[in-house]
Amino acid sequence: MLAGQVALVVAAVFAGAALYVNVAEQPARLSLDDRSLLGEWKPSYKRGFAMQAPLAILGFLLGLFAWWQTGLWTWFVGAILMIANWPYTLFVIMPVNNRLMGIDPTTAGVDSRLLIEKWGAASWAVRSVSGVGYSPVKQ
User: Is 69 left (phi over 0), alpha (psi -120 to 50) or beta?
Assistant: First the structure.
């Protein structure tokens, strides 16, 4: 049942990274002036996406494999919760990301700050919860 153990580790790393952004990075970033805020958000977002997107896919695949191995429906639910980040990101968060990426940091202001606040509420709060979805019980 190695697949299940690794799926749990992947989900924990995914949820931990999202929780870190919610608890530490986003609040610290919001204390910056508007120009610095956007200047920090852009590379941070790119790095976070590069880490969390593969984790979501890997967690999904490992969860499916653990479900196939064990027949426990909870692995399937955990897998679905991990991959649910993709459509949520594409349809809900990506429009905000694209608007933010299109703003030159030299023209950052109240609008870009409000978008980053919206991004924080929509993006990482959901991701923190979805990674915690793996909690298989023995049946």
Answer: alpha
Count the neighbouring beta carbons within 10 Å of the beta carbon of residue 138: 6
Which pairs from 90-96 meet CB under 8 Å and 24+ separation? 92/122, 93/119, 93/122, 93/123, 96/122, 96/123
Whole-number Å distance between alpha carbons of 134 and 19:
16
Fill in the amino acid letter for 119: W
Helix axes 94-101, 34-70, angle to 10 degrees: 150
Q: Left (φ > 0), alpha (ψ -120 to 50) or beta: where does 134 sit?
A: beta
Q: Is 137's pLDDT higher than 50?
A: no
| Residue with token string 């997107």 | 53
Q: What is the pLDDT of residues 6-34, one digit of tens each?
A: 999 999 999 998 889 889 999 999 999 99
Contact status, residue 13 vs residue 47, Cβ threshold 8 Å: no
pLDDT digits (tens, 9 = 90+) for 55-76: 999 999 999 999 999 999 999 9
- Closest by CA to 33, choosing from 89, 92, 113, is 113
Determine if the pTM surpasses 0.70.
yes
